[in-house]
Every structure is written in C-alpha cells, then in structure tokens.
Amino acid sequence: MTAPFQASLLDSCERAGPGPLGSTVRRTLLGHGAWIDLRPGWISGADDLFERLARAVPWHAERRHMYDRLVDVPRLLKFYDEDEPLPDPLLEQARDALNAHYARELGEPFRTAGLCLYRDGRDSVAWHGDRIGRGSTEDTMVAIISVGAPRALLLRPNGGGPALRHELGHGDLIVMGGSCQRTWEHAVPKSARATGPRVSVQFRPRGVR
Ligand SMILES: O=C(O)CCC(=O)C(=O)O
Ligand SMILES: [Fe+2]
C-alpha cells in the first residue's frame, strides 16, 4: 500500500476540515524579528481537497517581464481577492479558524487567498519575500496550507545564508510572521526527483502580496 493511499484512508475516518490550532502549533523564532509556526497535518481530508482544487479552480498561466524578456511563471495561479468567494467551503473554514487563532496577534484578518499549482518538480518559485504592501515595512503574516504531494519550502535570511527546509504537503500549515517577509526570503526550488502535484493556498491580510 502506498503512503498517499494510507493517508487518504486515515483521512476518511475523520471529518474533513481544519483540526485544532492552539497548543498544536509549534513556533520557531528565526532571528531578526521573524518567526514561523508549523502545524503538520492541520487539514483532514487534504488529499480530497487537493483533487477538488486541482479540478475546479480556474488555473491560469502567467508571463512576467524578466530584464528585457517575457518569461513563463513556472506554476499555475489563481488569486481570490477579499470580495471573491473561495473555491471550496473547506478553505472558508480554514480562513475562519486562522482568523480566530491569529486575529489578536495580527491585528487584522486574513482576507485574500493566493493559490498556486505546482504541476511537477519543474514548477517552482524563486527566492523572494511577499513585500508588496505592508510586507515591506511592517510586521505581517502569511499563512500557507499545502495539499497534494509534499514540496520543500526553503527559508533563508535576506541576501543568503544557510536555508531552513520544510517538506510541506497533505494538509500541513506554515505561518510566516513577524518581520519574515522583509528580513527573510522563501522559495520552492525545482526538484529533479519525480514529484506529484502540490497546491498551496496563501492567506494574507488586505494589500499584502
Ligand atoms: O507555494 C508555497 O508554499 C509558497 C508560495 C509563495 O511563496 C508565494 O506565492 O508568495
Ligand atoms: Fe511568497
């Protein structure tokens, strides 16, 4: 029996949706005022959620200017602004649960959801901080749910240094907080190994990208 099949069997015994947060969340201080919270396996029914999102979200490819060329963004995208309904009720539940847990510390709600589909190991996101909006000047939070096959999310201090690596998939939650978007960078590197598809859902406050 393969590991993903076992995971979905286990999943189907529990009610689909976000589990508790509270004391199940593990915080790591990164230095420079940045921190991450990790909550492995937060979403029950994550494999089913992956299938629904992969099928139902109107994914699109983007091209961006790089120096003097237009290049393909190596992943598919869909951004849900604050007034757009999310593509699955489970994502609404997850956002509500994140808001209940983080609102006091964050001082405002998570409002938008950016979705990325990494089709295989060739899809990736380069080193960056989410620095549009308050991410460049103020502390904020970006909460990411990962479903589907795990991919490595790397974090390193701005400008380089040893990277921290977390393999995220199958319903894991990571929250980047404090100064993380302006004093650290994150990336999902390409993988040479055979890798199944992964969807990430990034919840952000208004104006942060
Ligand atoms: O896929 C991820 O977990 C990270 C995506 C990301 O960093 C972004 O879209 O800003
Ligand atoms: Fe990002």
Written overview of the protein:
21% of the residues lie in helices and 37% in strands. The protein is an alpha+beta fold. It has a single domain, classed as Alpha-ketoglutarate-dependent dioxygenase AlkB-like (Jelly Rolls, Sandwich), CATH 2.60.120. The protein has a seven-stranded antiparallel β-sheet with strand order 2-3-13-10-15-8-7. A four-stranded antiparallel β-sheet has the order 9-14-11-12. The longest helix has 18 residues, at 89-106. It is globular. 35% of the residues are buried. The model has no long low-confidence stretch (mean pLDDT 94). Residues 128, 130, 186 line the site of fe (ii) ion.
Task: List segments where confidence is low: pLDDT < 50 over at least 5 consecutive residues.
Answer: none
Strand order of the largest sheet: 2-3-13-10-15-8-7
Provide the CATH architecture.
Answer: Sandwich
Approximate shape: globular
| CATH homologous superfamily placement | Alpha-ketoglutarate-dependent dioxygenase AlkB-like
